[in-house]
């Protein structure tokens, strides 16, 4: 069976198909990312008879048209959205949506004497040789009247040249554009592969791109659900655009969805800012109990997972489940409580979280457990915290994450979240993990390492102070300012022959400390600056930090997982020091995990 068909369509025919809803352009309600120069260049290419590339569409069985009917063969435009939107703007004179969600007109001018196109300017508008807006010519009821007015404004022009140029410009409406229509029964992965091979830019489309396109085909409801996702994601990053949405998107304002996300206009939290791909993944997990994104599109298409055939009666049910999932995702109470749950595990800044997918699944898990009557709030938060940290430590969300999520969702449904988590812990967080694997994983120079960041989270969780600090905590330094300091200074190590960056920048040689303490230590060997600390403890005279008590110094070392005999560490014993500290850091993380 053919996977696609190829057809030619005129510009006029294409715009008619779009206007009638036969071809859906999901991007119409999103900010137009092309500038007017690109629109000008597109018209210029069509005027000169140059190819402008194929459009790629995907059949969408069961999509809703504007008149409320069901389109058996509506096509979703998955490549060429900007080109078609540009044609609508320049040829049909229709407005586009700008970055403030405000409709604006892109006006392209044409000079029949030179054959040039330009973005209209005040000077061009005042220059009679220019047609200031080509859409007025394309929409004119009488081309002859339009031509006559132009000649009247320019009595000295070559009439034949002007007539030829205007006739040639009008042929843009009949210019042929190729459309590659992909079959409706293709899997998302197949569509993506075909897209990559056809698209000369080689830019892959994600499953979430297809999902967003599919959502928008379900009439007004689909468009507004898609907007709900878009606006939620946008407001999470830029709360100030709320008023732009209110001022410019009256259709969405009239829905019950805007009040559901209005809280974001006053939200400054940035620990977790989901994008639309993240939201689609979470909605799939909680709305359809699936991890594979292609299954999400199949559900919205009404495809029965058993028979693989389309059953249109399944489509409204799927959109009901989608809407319910989205409203749960954007709920203020649940979203903010989830953030507090993650922060209560010690992960208090975005820099500490190396895996967005770890957050995505943890949020989906939180929402799945949210209304479990058999579970207390404390149990729910403990499971979510442990799952999130387990994911960070085991790399559970790397590689083929969708397959892993599919398996996890199935087992959570079968055995319950607590039982499934316990199975994972027994298999992957055994004594061997804490004693061998984790210390080995800490042998890295990357401060972005999830193992090092989990160690810092453990310090935040337990209220640890910065290295050699009496009162300033690791959390305070994360939130304000603090240095990542080499316990054994790198300049000292380099001077003594340890010159490889990956050696002296090991995370086992790092601690968070106050800037003033870091400066005071400078490039001295541990024995030298520890002598100063000992003198400070004996005399009470502050010169390096504020610790003046030996027991407090020991507690500070323990909080930072630093060996008590630091004063004996030299360049010669540096690598042995790293081994011992990795073990101590792993033990700190293990105790922290047990307390989650």
TrEMBL record:
Pfam families: GmrSD_N
Residues covered by the GmrSD restriction endonucleases N-terminal domain: 16-214
Highest taxon listed in the record's lineage: Bacteria
Name this polypeptide is given: GmrSD restriction endonucleases N-terminal domain-containing protein
């Amino acid at each position: 069976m053919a996977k696609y068909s190829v057809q030619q369509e005129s510009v006029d025919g294409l715009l008619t198909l779009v206007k009638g809803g036969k071809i859906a352009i999901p991007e119409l309600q999103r900010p137009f990312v092309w500038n007017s120069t690109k629109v000008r260049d597109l018209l210029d290419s069509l005027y000169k008879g140059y190819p402008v590339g194929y459009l790629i569409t995907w059949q969408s069985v069961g999509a809703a048209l504007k008149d409320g009917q069901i389109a058996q063969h509506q096509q979703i435009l998955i490549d060429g959205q900007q080109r078609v939107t540009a044609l609508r703007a320049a040829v049909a004179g229709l407005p586009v949506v700008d970055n403030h969600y405000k409709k604006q007109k892109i006006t392209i001018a044409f000079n029949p004497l030179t054959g040039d196109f330009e973005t209209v300017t005040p000077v061009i508008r005042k220059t009679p040789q220019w047609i200031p807006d080509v859409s007025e010519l394309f929409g004119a009821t009488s081309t002859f009247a339009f031509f006559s007015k132009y000649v009247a404004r320019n009595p000295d022009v070559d009439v034949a040249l002007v007539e030829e140029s205007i006739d040639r410009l009008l042929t843009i409406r009949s210019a042929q554009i190729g459309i590659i229509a992909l079959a409706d029964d293709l899997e998302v992965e197949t569509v993506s592969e075909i897209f990559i091979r056809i698209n000369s830019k080689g830019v892959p489309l994600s499953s979430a791109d297809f999902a967003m396109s599919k959502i928008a085909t379900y009439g007004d409801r689909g468009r507004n659900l898609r907007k709900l996702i878009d606006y939620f994601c946008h407001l999470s990053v830029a709360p100030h655009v709320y008023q732009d949405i209110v001022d410019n998107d009256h259709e969405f304002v009239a829905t019950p969805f805007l009040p559901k996300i209005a809280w974001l206009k006053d939200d400054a939290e940035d620990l977790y800012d989901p994008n639309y791909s993240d939201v689609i993944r979470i909605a799939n997990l909680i709305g359809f109990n699936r991890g594979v994104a292609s299954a999400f599109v199949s559900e919205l298409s009404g495809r029965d997972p058993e028979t693989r055939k389309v059953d249109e009666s399944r489509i409204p049910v799927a959109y009901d489940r989608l809407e319910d999932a989205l409203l749960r995702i954007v709920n203020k109470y649940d979203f903010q409580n989830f953030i507090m749950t993650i922060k209560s595990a010690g992960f208090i800044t975005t820099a500490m979280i190396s895996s967005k997918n770890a957050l995505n699944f943890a949020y989906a898990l939180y929402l799945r457990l949210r209304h479990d009557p058999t579970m207390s709030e404390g149990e729910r938060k403990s499971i979510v915290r442990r799952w999130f940290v387990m994911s960070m430590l085991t790399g559970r969300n790397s590689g083929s994450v969708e397959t892993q999520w599919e398996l996890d969702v199935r087992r959570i449904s079968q055995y319950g979240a607590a039982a499934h988590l316990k199975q994972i812990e027994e298999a992957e967080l055994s004594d061997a993990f804490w004693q061998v694997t984790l210390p080995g994983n800490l042998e890295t120079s990357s401060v972005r390492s999830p193992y090092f960041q989990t160690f810092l989270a453990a310090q935040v969780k337990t209220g640890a102070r910065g290295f050699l600090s009496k009162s300033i905590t690791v959390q305070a330094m994360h939130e304000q300012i603090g240095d990542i300091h080499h316990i054994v200074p790198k300049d000292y190590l380099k001077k003594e022959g340890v010159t490889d960056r990956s050696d002296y920048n090991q995370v086992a040689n790092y601690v968070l400390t106050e800037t003033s303490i870091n400066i005071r230590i400078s490039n001295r060997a541990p024995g030298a600056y520890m002598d100063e600390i000992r003198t400070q403890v004996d005399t009470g005279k502050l010169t390096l930090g504020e610790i003046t008590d030996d027991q407090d110094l020991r507690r500070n070392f323990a909080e930072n997982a630093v060996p008590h005999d630091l004063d004996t560490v030299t360049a010669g014993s540096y690598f042995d020091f790293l081994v011992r500290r990795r073990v101590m850091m792993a033990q700190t993380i293990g105790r922290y995990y047990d307390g989650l």
